[in-house]
Amino acid sequence: MKATVTQASFLCLLVVLSILVKSHGDPYGNPSPAAPPPSAVAGKEFPQFLFCNDPSTKCFLKVISCPQQCPTFKSSDPNSKGCFIDCKSKNCEAVCKTRKPSCNGIGAACYDPRFVGGDGVMFYFHGKTNEQFSLVSDHNLQINARFIGRRPQGRSRDNTWIQALGLMFDSHSFTLASKKVANWDDETDQLLFTYNGMTINIPSGHLSTWAAPDGNLMVERTVTYNSVTVTLPGVVEMSVNVVPVTKEDDRVHNYQIPSDDCFAHLEVQFKFFHLSEKVEGVLGQTYRPEFKSPVKRGVPMPVMGGEDKYRTSSLVSANCKYCIFGVDGLHGATKSLVLDSVMTVDCTSKIDNGRGFVCRR
User: Fold this and answer.
1) To 10 degrees, the CA torsion angle through 78, 343, 88, 278?
2) 233: which of 85, 139, 288, 349 is 20 to 30 A away, CA to CA?
């Protein structure tokens, strides 16, 4: 009898939690992704669990708790790890992760620039200085990158870095860029933002937040300066960090950086919630189930080509040869990919921070 009562009580609790999640978006009272997200979250108390109420997810009807090592989703300490729970994850377990991008994780684009594809393979894509390239192009999403760089004396190609990102969805556009900086200062913000072509201001400060008027896009600072998370609910989350080319980087790689420009650039990691099987782009193509990486394995710098296929005319255009954003009739004809966003790749090495090694899942 006691077991029956206990089971009934537990079922009642699940029903209540399900109603709560559906009406509020999550069990701690934040609005659902379709509604405008909060303009500030710094004073909120976040719980230590999440109830998965989406029947399409692997962890449906499970309550996933945060571990003791990271007991809350968003810590008041920007240097502490946060609790990440994904109801689509393979093991239905919470993980502790920093909210800054992991340059060795799936979906990363860092350095000059080095990518880790959806297939777990590391590659370099050089692009070209002062040009834009499509990183991801899908029927409902376009992500472009603008490259900056220079050609050192005696080199046959440019060294390039990602200076800006352009995001297109529905009829909207969003851009995020690093400023040109002569001398780097960790206590000065170097980020520029626009939404639908208009400059937006996001005050400095840990967990300072901006939301689009319709609530379909949110930007949150993950530390006081130069690090943000950009979220398009149900589609993509981008963790972005602005960094300079340091004197040590310059010494090791002989970039020959001038004194008037430290080439501030972006480190970014993408976490995709939805992609189609037809997704394109320098990075996007690596998530397709039939994709076979053409890069040479085991060489110091495996290079992915395709500049001509993915070059766009601007940061917020989808006119590359292989771009499919907004193509009529494509939406209903493609299947969605099953994405395990918790999966990571360890590209580290005792030599050169793993920047010249092949990484596999």
Assistant:
1) 110
2) 288
CA distance readout (Å), 303 to 121, 128, 209, 280: 11, 14, 37, 18
Structure confidence at residue 245 (pLDDT): 96
**How far from each other are the two terminal CA atoms of the chain, in whole angstroms?**
49
pLDDT in tens, 154-211: 888 889 999 999 999 999 999 999 999 999 999 999 999 999 999 999 999 999 999 9
**Residues linked to residue 51 through DSSP beta bridges, in sequence order:** 63
**HEC states along 269-317?**
EEEECCCECCCECCCHHHHCCCCCCCCCCCCCCCECCCHHHHEECCCCC
Q: How confident is the model at residue 297 (pLDDT cuts 50, 70, 90)?
A: confident
Look up tokens 């771009």; give the residue.
Answer: 323
Contact indicator for 162, 146 with CB cutoff of 8 Å: yes
The answer to whether the beta carbons of residues 129 and 158 sit under 8 Å apart is yes
Find, among 324, 357, 325, 310, the residue nearest to 128 by Cα. Answer: 310
Phi, psi of 353, deg, nearest 5: 55, 25
Pairing of strands 159-169, 141-150: antiparallel
Instruction: Fill in the amino acid letter for 41.
Output: V
Least confident of 4-13, 69-78, 167-176, 269-278: 4-13
Is-contact 237 86, C-beta < 8 A? no
Q: Please give the C-alpha separations between residue 278 and each of 249, 284, 305, 319, in angstroms, as whole numbers.
A: 37, 9, 19, 17
Q: Which two tokens stand for residue 96?
A: 């502790």
Give pLDDT tens digits for 210-263: 999 988 999 999 999 999 999 999 999 999 999 999 999 999 999 999 999 999
What does the alpha-carbon distance between residue 151 and residue 153 come to, in Å, rounded to a whole number?
6
CB-CB contact of 210 with 202 (8 Å):
yes
Average pLDDT value over all residues in the chain: 82
Long-range contacts of 155-159 (CB under 8 A, 24+ apart): 157/126, 158/126, 158/128, 158/129, 159/112, 159/253, 159/255
User: Taking the model in full, what pTM does it have?
Assistant: 0.79
Both tokens of 110, joined, read 């860092």
